[in-house]
Amino acid sequence: MAAPALELDNVACTFVSKDDPSQRYTAVREVALTVGAGEFVSVVGPTGCGKSTLLNVAAGLLQPSTGSVRVFGEPLVGINARAGYMFQSESLMPWRTALQNVMAGLEFRGVADAREQAEEWLKRVGLGGFGNRYPHQLSGGMRKRVSLAQTLVLDPDIILMDEPFSALDIQTRQLMENEVLALWSAKKKAVLFITHDLDEAIAMSDRVVCLSAGPGSRPIGEFAIDLPLPRDVAEVRVMPRFVELHQAIWSVLRDEVLKGYQQQLAA
Amino acid sequence: MWNYIKPRQSNLLAWQVGLLVAIFVFWHVATKPGLIPPIVFENDQQAAFFFGEPLKIFGRVWAWFVTNADIYQHLWVTLLETVLAFGIGTGLGLGCGLWLALSPMAAAICDPYIKALNSMPRVILAPIFAVWFGLGIASKVALGVTLVFFIVFFNVYQGVKEVSPVVLANARMLGASQKQLLRHVYLPSATSWVFSSLHTSVGLAFVGAVVGEYLGSSRGVGYLILQAEGAFDINTVMAGILVLTVFALALDAGVGKLEKRLMKWQPKSGETEKL
User: Fold this and answer.
1) Touching check for B108 and chain A: CB below 8 Å?
2) Where are the domains of chain A?
């Protein structure tokens, strides 16, 4: 069997306060997570449980305190060059136009026909006529689509997504979710998708992993999603199987969400 | 009637010019000997002696630029000093700011010295520069550079420190090398800070040039002003100040134009998300 695209083994991340070294915060611990090649895995969990930390570890932006990360069987050193990362917050370079932003990665790699490829991707996300606009001239949804094109134009083997659609309204969100699903099923990349929205996780993934409440979150449940493919995120929500899965995952997640909420109230 | 001339966007320029004319008219009326009886001074010549007369000042400027045409060599020297000080100071500030912002250890070592140099009253260095570099333009440029450098330096330093961590992480994930990060992320991010400092530094480059000339030189507008002061010729002093002000304004407008061209990616208020 081929090595999985991404393999986190016994990963823990402890942050030490710069001002006071005795102040430690363990965001995640004992995390074992694999994403097979071509598999779409979602991670759900209560707020503040270290979902983004996990993604940063997978991207190589953050060194885990213990444990190891392997990418297609190779230990990860530095930035994960085979992964594309779609961030939760605004990540476009405001001094570049939409087209230049999509081109950026190709330009860094010295690709000759960067402009043509970028233009094609802009068209594919429905922004063909907006190439020369600056990010501040685009709406939030358009900026997300530029981000998507910016990440996917590099054709990464692993796609990391950190609540990419959480800031969008529900209609734009469903459109984007379907777009991502269509692109994913065409290319069959490994996807690690972080979300706090259980519906979104079930509708899009092959597998959903639940994290416990922080600090020291760890995976507490894993569910294979056996809904038929291809899916439409709006239609799939009314299937009986979807509701069953939702109830099963929610029963695991509910206590953790309440725990996380209590901790935030107490803090 | 009032509705017609009421200040609004369309007649803004007329109001601005009108205010300038009003100031000069007031100045003229208050200083012209014999026009109004002396209120503050003992006789009607004194106001003109202390404050100069606008008409004579304009006559002086006219003579400098047209009839005698003898100001050009002085103006050229002063402007050359200003532009050199501005250019060198900005370049050095940009380079050092980027370097120190990107190497925290070097910044930690240099920190107290930079603070000391910045808080030192640097105009006092002018006589030393005159000794080191002579009475030519080099000593004035050196003074201007010390004034400009720190303004630009601190702004670049701050600008690089405040690069959005998400944009930076994104560029790294897109595969940017250290050099590409500098060129495509740090530098553009710092330019907005640099431009806000350039308006201040153009003025300070001028200050460096004129103060340098004032303390010892044989050419330049500062030298003209010094000569006139020695002869209590207040009209020529005022004319010199007027000429300097106009050219400082022109340089500032030039920086503003450049800023507008390079910073068109920045949202202006009320323009965000205009689709």
Assistant:
1) no
2) 6-82+158-165+179-266, 86-155
> CB-based contact (8 Å) between A93 and chain B?
yes
This model of the complex carries an ipTM of: 0.85
The first and second tokens of residue A262, run together, are 């209590």
Residue pairs spanning A and B at CB distance below 8 A: 83
pLDDT tens for each residue of A185-242: 888 888 999 888 888 888 888 899 888 877 778 888 888 888 887 778 778 888 888 8
Q: Compare CB distances from B272 to A87, A109, A136 and report the shortest one's residue.
A: A136
User: Is the pTM value of this prediction over 0.80?
Assistant: no
Q: Is B270 on the interface with A (CB under 8 A)?
A: no
Domains identified in chain B and CATH numbers: 11-67 (no CATH), 72-262 (1.10.3720.10)
Distance from CA of A12 to the nearest CA of B (A): 21
Task: Annotate chain B with DSSP letters as a single string.
Answer: -HHHHS--GGGHHHHHHHHHHHHHHHHHHHHSTTTS--SSSSSTTHHHHHH--HHHHHHHHHIIIIIS--SHHHHHHHHHHHHHHHHHHHHHHHHHHHHHHH-HHHHHHHHHHHHHHHHS-GGGGHHHHHHHH-SSHHHHHHHHHHHHHHHHHHHHHHHHHTS-HHHHHHHHHTT--HHHHIIIIIHHHHHHHHHHHHHHHHHHHHHHHHHHHHHS-SSSHHHHHHHHHHTT-HHHHHHHHHHHHHHHHHHHHHHHHHHHHHTTTSPPTT-TT--
> What top-level class would CATH report for the domain A6-82+158-165+179-266?
alpha beta
